[in-house]
Amino acid sequence: METNDLYKIIAENTEEVLFKDRNSKFFGYAFPISNEDEIRHWLEVLKKQHHSARHWCYAWQLGVEKPKYRANDDGEPSNSAGMPIYGQIKSFELTNILIVVVRYFGGVKLGVGGLINAYRTAAKMAIEVAKIEEKTIDVKLEIGFDYKNMNKVMRIIKEKNLKLVDQKMEMNCTLFLSVRKKQAPEILEIFNSLFEVSVKKLEN
Questions:
Q1: Where is the signal peptide (predicted)?
Q2: Mean per-residue pLDDT, 129-148
Q3: Which of 67, 73, 126, 204 could form a disulfide with 28 if both were Cys (CB 3.0 to 4.6 A apart)?
Q4: Fold of 6-134
Q5: What does the angle CA 176 – CA 180 – CA 182 come to, to the nearest 5 degrees?
């Protein structure tokens, strides 16, 4: 079974985008996030910045292998704002992201269809101006051996182009490697087959 160990994030906060429909204004923003405290922070920032707006609707997704998400309509009709925003996060296959769309009411009701279109479009515009980066899911391996086996361990690290993240050189040697998830079974097997070398996968 092929392991999908790639995911996408945005590199930095985006520039403000604006979508207008019948005098209503929808300002879109996208933020890279790593926890729920950051979500609260950016919502507070935007509520101060747009204190006279009517709605601050948003959606976010956090995590890679078991992502969690939330979509909030903030007083708009049910599923007319948060889910269309979240739909764009899914469409662009992004995670660790918050998208907020701030609405100023223009005096003309747009109806649920109009709202869905407006929130979806503002969210899409916010993502389209973002710098999207692809990342890999990595696992950490701990390799233990004594000094006489240093050369054969280092040869594998070099041949397989593995990333060394830490090392402890005491009575014995311990190396910590970061390996792409889909490459990990092969690397574990190689080190397991070496005489006098131990290897274990660490929990992240």
A1: none
A2: 91
A3: 126
A4: Ribosomal Protein S5; domain 2 (3.30.230)
A5: 130
